[in-house]
Amino acid sequence: xxxxxxxxxxxxxxxxxxxxxxxxxxxxxxxxxxxxxxxxxxxxxxxxxxxxxxxxxxxxxxxxxxxxxxxxxxxxxxxxxxxxxxxxxxxxxxxxxxxxxxxxxxxxxxxxxxxxxxxxxxxxxxxxxxxxxxxxxxxxxxxxxxxxxxxxxxxxxxxxxxxxxxxxxxxxxxxxxxxxxxxxxxxxxxxxxxxxxxxxxxxxxxxxxxxxxxxxxxxxxxxxxxxxxxxxxxxxxxxxxxxxxxxxxxxxxxxxxxxxxxxxxxxxxxxxxxxxxxxxxxxxxxxxxxxxxxxxxxxxxxxxxxxxxxxxxxxxxxxxxxxxxxxxxxxxxxxxxxxxxxxxxxxxxxxxxxxxxxxxxxxxxxxxxxxxxxxxxxxxxxxxxxxxxxxxxxxxxxxxxxxxxxxxxxxxxxxxxxxxxxxxxxxxxxxxxxxxxxxx
Length: 440
Prior knowledge:
- It is built from 11 helices and 20 strands.
- The protein is an alpha+beta fold and 440 residues long.
- It has 2 domains: 3-81 and 109-262, no CATH class; 359-437, SH3 type barrels.
């Protein structure tokens, strides 16, 4: 597998757990009463009877051979694990309960999940031909965790499936067909179906001795072949860094080529019906009782609650994201130097500067409109500056006066009238050495 596998895994993990547990992360929430995730491969016939989902995920991708190419494949999915809370009765008997409360904490009866990652290959693409099929099997199991006053019983059903890989030439390229099928016997109910489903199923493919072709933006000589590729319940995209085309992620959700996790994201939230910032703020408003119930529901929910409760102001600001101009040729430049022989009143100088685009360097960090900074007023005589110490602000403009001194026009983040001040251009002004850049 490629050396960039770990980078791809971060994106693949987000795909794997998308929808795993939804806000407010409690078992009693209506939308958490049944498993709702992408990439669920149900047992045979489950979709037809309405008790589960289709059993097949399939995709076709293109490879440009450079030598004798080989293909390695990883199939990843979740296996449902039923956690039953049981209270100790007289003797050695136990009784199933909705919630087990002990001195160490509370546990609810709940459906957890176990990650599985199964590797296949390498396949010699020249020998694949009409196709090769490999079995996929996960053993059942039961684990018991004893607690004071009771126990937790975790049980898993056996999973059955198969991977099929085929190859054929197409306009000087190789068209690979990859499919994952759940081959479990027909189920009798929705609970039975989800217990033997492959959940969050996706595929990561790696090629050696060749490279994958983008299906979203194929080169001219591959456009026709790309239009002939067919997919069922998935979206294959190039993965890993943009300079490498040796990895493909076959995802059950729509992605673009070379996807990556946003640097501002502090961790998984599983419920992407909200952006991270809004969802984090909503978690922070939950009552202590609601948070305790979420922690009792699932360990991953407990991690989310703990992370949001301990989030620093800077981390919270980072969730606000970064607005980038997609049409900009590059980063904004610094305030241009005044050419020799040109005076500040020359009209050509006005056209060379732009407070909304220009930038200054503060401790080696480029600061421009949109940058967030912490204020440290130092040289002003205005007593009001005392109220701005350690406040977080957003830079709205960058200026240089006729004496060559630089100034940053800022708007306070926690100012209720910030939008009004910005609309009128009424900024607070500080010199670059009075601010501390907050890295985003």
